[in-house]
What does this fold into?
Amino acid sequence: MIEKDNQEYNYKPIEMCPSFNRCNHNLCPLDPYTNDRPYVNEGTKCVATKPTRMNIAEQFAELLPYKGLTNREWSGQLTWARRDPKEKKKFVESNTKRLKKMKKD
It folds into this structure.
């Protein structure tokens, strides 16, 4: 059982991950204390898919401020949120055209 902000939880989000038993990444996005841990570059990555992590994180919203996202994914989301709506629209339109062109080839 873990406690965060005076709330107790019977399951750790990290233990709900289907990759939990075979994963050795030291900065798990489902670990409520990941930001308190030192980073050790072991060349490992989180192997759980983003949708899997986000689904688990929904159940532990109070524990996981990054919502199950990696630091890089969270940073990208913040960057996108700060963009001007016109700039977002232009970006989406230009990349939609590129994708359509790639599908034709």
